Amino acid sequence: MLELIKYAIEKGAILVGSVSGGKDGQAMVKTLVNNKFPVTLLIHADLGRVEWPDSIKMCKRQSEELNIPLITVTRHDGLDLLAYWQRRMYKLMSKGKPFWSSAKQRYCTSDLKREPINKYFRSLPSNFIISCEGIRAEESSARAKKSPLSIRKEITSTYYDGMSVIEAIANFNPKKRLALTWYPVFNYTLEDVWLTYGMTMTDAEMARHAYACDKKVPEWWPFHPAYAFGNDRVSCIFCVLGSINDLKVGAKHNPDLLDEMIHMEDVSDATFRHNWSLRNLKEPEKPKTEKGPFMQAIFE
C-alpha cells in the first residue's frame, strides 16, 4: 500500500489531510509527517454550532505545529448543521417525515462534509489528489469492511471508469482528474493512536482522572479536551450515532445547545433518535427542601 502511494506521488499526486479535530485524524497526519509523506494541506469541514468549540482549535494547533496550511470549508449556502436540521424540520414536519440525521440518512456527512470538500478539490490546480482520512477498521464492523484505498468517483474523470486503483494510478493523465481516498491509519488500534503523540491508554485515563478532580485539562494532554472530559469519540456534540456516554458528556458541557435541540424535538414532535429523546440527557433537578422550625432557627 505504501509503495503504491509513493508511486502515486511520483506520478504527481498531492496528499490532503482531512481533519475534524478528533484523535484519528490527528494521529493520521502525525503518522504521515513522521514517515516523510508530503502533506500539502489540511482541510476541515466546519459543521458550526453542533461541533465542539475546541475542534477547530485542535485543527489549527496541528496546522501550526506541523507547518501545514489549513483550509476550512462549509456548505455552499452557508448553513451549518443545526440550521440545516431546522430548515428540514419546518419543511418536513407537516408531512410526518423525520428530519434528523440517521444511520440511513447521513446527509450531515454527505452534504456538509464530503460535498464541500469535493468542491474544494475541484478547484485545486492539481488533477491528482489523495484525500487522507482517519478511518480505522477497529471502530466498527461497517468501517472494517471499507477499502483502505479507493477511487473517489464523485470527482474523478470518467476516463478512469472500469480501472482498478492500481491501473488508474499507472494510467494517470494530467488532463483527467483522478482523486483517491486513503485511510493511512486503517489498521491502527486505539493504543496506536495515542502513541503517535507519545501517550498510552493509561495516560488517557490519567487525563480523565485529572479533569474529574480539578475540572482542568492537563497541559500535557495533546489531544482534544473532550477525551479528558470522558468522550470515547469526538464528532458532533450530539451525534445520532454517538454512544450514550458521549451524548451525556456533550450534554454536561453544552447545556444551551441541548436545550435548543430539545425545543426542536418539542416543536416537531420528532425525537432525535427513533423513540429516544434528547430529554433523557437532562439531569433531574434536585428537589427543594423547606426548612422546618428547627432548621430555620439554625440558619437565622
Which key terms come to mind for this protein?
13 helices; Rossmann fold; 6-stranded mixed β-sheet; disordered C terminus; alpha/beta; 300 residues; globular
Q: Strand order, biggest sheet?
A: 3-2-1-4-6-5
What count of helical segments does DSSP give?
13
The CATH homology group name of the largest domain: HUPs
Radius of gyration: 23 Å
Tell the overall outline: globular
Order of helices and strands: HEHEHEHHEHEHEHHHHHH
CATH architecture of the largest domain: 3-Layer(aba) Sandwich
Protein model, in words:
The chain has 300 residues and is an alpha/beta fold. The chain has 2 domains: 2-189, HUPs (Rossmann fold); 191-278, no CATH class. It is built from 13 helices and 6 strands. It has helices spanning 2-10, 23-34, 53-66, 81-92, 107-123, 141-144, 165-170, 190-195, 201-214, 225-229, 244-253, 255-268, 293-299, and strands at residues 14-18, 39-45, 70-73, 128-133, 149-151, 178-182. Strands 3-2-1-4-6-5 form a 6-stranded mixed β-sheet, sandwiched between helices. Strand 2 (39-45), helix 3 and strand 3 (70-73) form a beta-alpha-beta unit. It starts with a helix and ends with a helix. Residues 294-300 have low confidence and may be disordered.
